[in-house]
């Protein structure tokens, strides 16, 4: 992990590169004194204000569960671009979205969407 207390654009940042035990890069940061951000694969979500302890707890739970493989990211692709990414948790035999990121192009119905699951699974090697 690389912790940056003097980042040029945010208050504090942590980069966790893909490595044995982690299949994708993760970036965490605090912005504008009260926004907690999680960036992983194509997902970018935030929790604020961080003065709300429930928001901080949800952020910590999301980061921990994503790193452990309990949560996954479902990416929606149109052609060669990701247009939406959903942070999901198991809900019985299905998955429930807990946070998501999207672009306006996610609303355009063409080209046809394809999906990619990004999840930190035990025993799978990183491609980084």
Overall description:
This protein has a 5-stranded antiparallel beta sheet with strand order 1-2-3-4-5, with helices on one face. A 4-stranded antiparallel beta sheet has the order 8-7-6-9, with no helix packed on it. It is 12% helix and 45% strand. By secondary structure, the protein is mainly beta. The radius of gyration is 15 Å and the shape is globular. It has one domain (2-118). The chain has 1 helix and 9 strands, in the order βββββαββββ. Strand 6 and strand 7 (81-91) form a beta hairpin.
Question: How would you describe this structure in keywords?
Answer:
128 residues, 4-stranded antiparallel beta sheet, 12% helix, 45% strand
In short:
The protein has one helix spanning 53-68, and strands spanning 2-4, 12-16, 26-31, 35-40, 43-47, 72-78, 81-91, 94-102, 113-118. It has 128 residues and is mainly beta.
Sheet with most strands = 5 strands, antiparallel
Query: What's the multimeric state?
Result: single chain
Strand composition percent:
over 45%
The secondary-structure element order is EEEEEHEEEE
Strand order of the largest sheet: 1-2-3-4-5
Structural class: mainly beta
Intertermini distance: 15 Å
Number of helical segments with 4 or more residues: 1
What percent of the residues sit in helical stretches (DSSP H or I)? 10-25%
């Amino acid at each position: 992990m690389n912790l940056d207390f003097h980042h040029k654009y945010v208050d504090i940042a942590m980069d966790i590169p893909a490595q044995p035990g982690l299949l994708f890069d993760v970036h965490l940061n605090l912005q504008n004194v009260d926004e907690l951000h999680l960036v992983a694969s194509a997902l970018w979500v935030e929790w604020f204000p961080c003065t709300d302890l429930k928001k901080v707890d949800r952020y910590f739970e999301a980061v921990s569960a994503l790193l452990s493989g309990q949560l996954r990211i479902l990416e929606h692709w149109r052609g060669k671009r990701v247009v939406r990414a959903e942070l999901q948790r198991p809900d019985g035999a299905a998955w429930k979205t807990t946070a998501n990121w999207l672009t306006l192009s996610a609303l355009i119905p063409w080209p046809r969407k394809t999906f990619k699951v990004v999840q930190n699974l035990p025993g799978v090697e990183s491609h980084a």
